[in-house]
Write a structure and sequence with these properties.
2 copies of one chain form a homodimer. With 349 residues, chain A is α/β, with parallel strands linked by helices. The first copy, chain A, folds into 3 domains: 49 residues, lambda repressor-like DNA-binding domains (434 Repressor (Amino-terminal Domain)), CATH 1.10.260; 134 residues, Rossmann fold (3-Layer(aba) Sandwich); 134 residues, Response regulator (Rossmann fold). Helix content of chain A is 44%, strand content 17%. Chain A has 13 helices and 12 strands. Chain A starts with 7 loop residues before the first helix and ends in an 8-residue tail after the last strand. At the A-B interface, helix 4 and helix 8 of A face helix 4 and helix 8 of B. Chain A binds a DNA duplex (16 and 16 nucleotides) through helix 2 and helix 4.
Chain lengths: 349, 349
DNA sequence: ATGAAAGCGCTAACAA
DNA sequence: TTGTTAGCGCTTTCAT
């Protein structure tokens, strides 16, 4: 239909005004009479104007700085998976004029999070990606961001605050429900074991709580008589882990189904492998390298994973679109799909 | 480090030349003396020049036309899934100055493919996405594209020609192997049924052949004694389908495991639902709407899927990057991951 | 072989 | 309230 792109000039001519005025109404920064406003709007409608982003960006020299606030890879292997996503996002948005700066914190250290949050605020970014670990402090941060009109995006999980631009993460309750189905393979199970880590018991916020809930609900509905045992292991003490599992299975040798709701199923892999010979079904979460290795060897049967790298990438993209092109994300809450990994499809993940 | 972006002007000054010359060496289009060439290269290295894509694109007015050659949604529901991907890709690349034109063909009609291929060539695109159905004709097309130096990307499957820019698709053999594991759930199975469609038998090229091979190999390794039956149904004749299945299950009431290797598992869903009451395990491929509905109702247990929309989107992106930014794709062969869908995770797919 | 200069479409500062 | 104009960094044509 339209052969040549219509420009500001075309609109100005048709409206009988200058491009200055046209620009003013396009960015509605006032100083325009009601009448001119109308005329311009009409012309725009008539000609089907589409702004040229290259001209706009070149002229304005707009730049954006996006801060990514996530736990450091050192404080747990899960977050190292996001590194790649940050890299990809950086590459994709850099030519547009977007700089990405990662600020990480020790996910077990509240003070360190405070420091990181302050650092983020100090750099006055045009957008922030947050992976919340500490509920209260995160709330404080995002309220401040809201006050400063800096848009922010949650990944992985979110806190109770509605001013976020978008959220990308796994639906936790549902992932637990799915996990129930995969662990039992749809059959009734008499007795199963949930392995948890010690800090869960020490009152720290437990991000997997609603996942566990989904799991229990699945059991209640599909395997009502099932007995559920729990043991607590210390992630920093392999000997304790071994002992706890030894004790449990001496008492309950009939248990064949084992599950963990955090990303650390690899912690029990040494025990499983030195006590092989029993047919077991083991399900865990997240594609950490150690988990994937256990999956490949057949020690773990299924991993339920998401793409942490995709999450950051999408989050950054959303902020970049907002900052550079004034585009709002299509959806606020983006539940990423849950991927089921077995030894046979993990290779291409 | 670098505070202000360095521009052509900076380079020109440092090299003691004009920006005209600098531009000439940047795009190595000759007409530059050896000596100037060196000086410019040196200056570029010294200053760490990064071209400004906005200025470049604005000035050159570069446009790209990308043709997407895929089977029409009408000739089978699978391809309607890609529509959305085309839409997304269009939206993402349009602001860059990229136009996407879909050219579809009846996947059962060789002449129609020929027509479509000619149409694509006639529009002299800057890049082509091809989903090959007819091996020989596709080869002809891509050889011509190669001759005309038009880059092309394969999706879904590829033909024997090495000049493609990239490929995005599912690893077929592996998907069959995975399917074996999911159907048997790791247990030995005595007798199972493969449902195929009639045209498979009529010598048409069968894109699922290597998937079937992967499946059979899984069985050979993990369930060696298993008896495998096949029936052939006519996709256009529900009565025939019903009859064939009735006959088979009258003869073999003990069969509990059913699989189809193409995307049409929905064809046998009516029969399954009117013959419910038996505990069965049913596995199929691809997230067609009808398949997903059957999955949700529990008639089908598992679907192995890919994201056809993602495939086109990535393919278009690769061509757009190439045409507009002279960027080569990171990898030539991109095997997409195989997604395992159950009723519990399909909702977020 | 090299330089000069006119845009590309838009933004923003300044004049009127 | 409106119009004019000088760039933004690069491409491309035309002189030299």
């Amino acid at each position: 239909m339209k052969t040549e792109k219509t420009t500001l000039m075309d609109i100005a001519r048709r409206a009988g005004l200058s491009i200055g005025t046209v620009d003013r109404v396009l960015h509605n920064r006032g100083e325009v009479s009601r009448k001119s406003q109308e005329k311009v709007m009409q012309a725009i409608r008539d000609l089907g104007y589409e702004p040229n982003m290259h001209a706009s960006l070149l002229s304005s020299g707009r730049q954006a700085l996006i801060a990514v606030l996530i736990p450091s890879p050192a404080s747990g292997p899960f977050w190292s998976l996001s590194e790649e996503g940050i890299g990809r996002a950086a590459q994709a948005t850099a030519p547009l004029g977007v700089t990405i700066r990662k600020v990480d914190y020790d996910q077990t250290d509240l003070d360190d999070f405070r420091r990181a949050a302050r650092q983020v605020l100090d750099m006055a970014p045009s957008g922030v990606v947050v992976a919340p670990m500490f509920r209260h402090e995160t709330l404080g941060l995002v309220e401040e961001l809201h006050r400063r009109e800096i848009p922010f995006v949650f990944i992985d999980s979110k806190v109770e605050n509605d001013s976020y631009l978008a959220y990308f993460g796994m639906p936790m309750y549902e992932s637990g429900y799915l996990c129930g189905d995969l662990l039992t393979a749809g059959h009734a199970v008499g007795h199963l074991l949930i392995v948890r880590i010690l800090s869960d018991r020490h009152g720290q916020s437990d991000p997997t709580a609603s996942r566990r809930e989904g799991f229990m609900d699945y059991l209640a509905e599909h395997s009502p008589g099932c007995r559920v045992s729990q043991v607590f292991i210390d992630p920093d003490d392999p000997a304790q882990t071994r002992q706890v599992l030894d004790d449990f299975f001496k008492e309950n040798p009939e248990v064949r189904h084992i599950v963990m709701f955090n990303s650390r199923i690899y912690l029990i892999v040494p025990w499983l492998e030195s006590n092989a010979g029993t047919e077991r079904r083991v399900v865990g979460f997240d594609n950490l390298e150690a988990n994937v290795e256990a999956l490949t060897r057949g020690t773990v049967d299924i991993l339920i994973a998401q793409h942490p790298d995709e999450q950051v990438a999408l989050a950054v993209q959303a902020l970049s679109d907002r900052a550079m092109l004034d585009r709002e994300p299509a959806r606020k809450d983006n539940f990423m799909h849950m991927d089921i990994l077995t030894r046979y499809n993990v290779k291409y993940y």
